[in-house]
């Protein structure tokens, strides 16, 4: 059985959900969760301590273009130094195609940004899916999956997975806290990124096995 059809189905369903949300309005939990991060009766002010805005902006920075490019470049450079040419090219393909996928879906779905609360970060694109959630999850997940087989210790591999998942989740939640995305935008970003990485690995296992690094002995 071909393992590439489940992620393709997930991508199609996620895209259809985005179109439905655009035409029929937010999900029932979208607006309550947006308001949960704000002071009751004041949609301009974040709930919590005075440093809450700086905290969420710091987390959202993890999904910005610069840190992603730095991490991706260092990973690809390390793979090239290890003479893992196929894996380096594979990694570059995942990351670059993910950016193109995110941009294309935004324009195809055409969902506007939420208007319920004041934005606390600069925005210049459409809402669905969250580019920060999609691309940060894509980058950190791909890095973890490519590098973990090169680590000999099981604890190190699990640490890498936990860090990648934590960074992805924190970045996505920050977009809702800052008011620039509906929760469904962020959830879609997470789901689509996982499906995209899954698709790439499924295709590579079938047609490009040299791109996938072999696992080291566990200790």
Structure notes:
- The chain starts with a helix and ends in a 12-residue tail after the last helix.
- It has one domain.
- The chain contains eight helices and two strands.
- Strand 1 (38-39) and strand 2 form a beta hairpin.
- Helix content is 66%, strand content 3%.
- It has 219 residues and is mainly alpha-helical.
- Helix 3 (52-61) crosses helix 7, helix 4 (65-81) packs antiparallel against helix 5 (85-109) and helix 6 packs antiparallel against helix 7 (154-177).
- Strands 1-2 form a two-stranded antiparallel sheet.
Question: Secondary-structure blueprint of this entry?
Answer:
Layout lengths: L4 H20 L5 H7 L1 E2 L2 E5 L5 H10 L3 H17 L3 H25 L21 H17 L6 H24 L5 H25 L12
Antiparallel strand pairs: 1-2
Helix pairs in contact: 1-8, 3-7, 4-5, 4-6, 5-6, 5-8, 6-7, 6-8, 7-8
